[in-house]
Each structure stands twice: as C-alpha cells, then as structure tokens.
Amino acid sequence: QVQLVESGGGLVQAGGSLRLSCRASGRIFSIDAMDWHRQATGKQRELVAGITTGGNTNYADSVKGRFTISRDNASDTVYLQMNSLQPGDTAVYYCNAKIASRPYAYYNYWGQGTQVTVSP
Fold first, then answer.
1. With b meaning 16 or more CB within 10 Å and e meaning fewer, what string describes 60-97?
2. d(Cα 27, Cα 19) in Å, to the nearest integer?
3. What's phi and psi for 89, nearest 5 deg?
C-alpha cells in the first residue's frame, strides 16, 4: 500500500508563513508528478501548485509569487512554502501524487488533508 502523509498546517495571521510537507511511503517503485490542491468550505477543490520529477513547476495565478513548491526525490517528499498568507488562502490542503508500485503502473494518490487557517 502507498500512503501520503501531510504535516505543517495550522493557524497563522495574515502576512505570515507556513510550510507544508507531504511524504510518500509504502511500496513505491517510482513517483511522477506531485501536486498540492486546496478546498475551501463550500468551494470546489483547486490545484495550487505542481512539480514534475525534473523540477518543473506550475502555480495557480492566485498564489504566484507567494507560494513555492519543491520536492526531495531521495525522501519522496514534496513541500509547499507559503508566504504572505491571506484569509483567502484558508482551506484544507491536500497532497496528490502519481505513484507506481511496479513499472509503468501509475495510480493517483491523495493525502488526508491538513487545515490552513489565516486570520485577518
């Protein structure tokens, strides 16, 4: 079995920073893209940032210049550094990764989510 375990969420004042981590564990042969998504109350889940195995990144327009995604392939971990946080960033943040437990058999996995709350 494969698991994604997130950490680093919490409560922060507007203008503050948080760093989220997500580590994959279990039967892992290879990991492709890793992403962070978020879902605010009453809204649809949206892509925040993504990173490929080679380190290419993409960001939602709303977080460009404030958030940075990175990954450590040696530890199967993806990070999301969030700076200049705003109340509109309040949401549950989910890690997502395409993981193969055997060659060429990639499946999509989700973490359990971590709450980020930004107070005015």
1. eeebeeebbbebeeeebbbbbebeebeeebbbbbbbbb
2. 26
3. -85, -5
| pLDDT, tens digit (0-9, with 9 covering 90-100), for 22-47 | 999 999 999 999 999 999 999 999 99
* Residue matched to tokens 């969420």: 9
Whole-number Å distance between alpha carbons of 63 and 54:
21
Contacts of 59 (CB under 8 A, 6+ apart): 48, 49, 67, 69
- According to DSSP, residue 101 is labeled S
* pLDDT, position 53: 93
From the list 58, 74, 61, 63, the residue with the least C-alpha distance to 24 is 74
Question: Which tokens sit at 45?
Answer: 């889940």
- The pair of structure tokens assigned to 26 is 């279990």
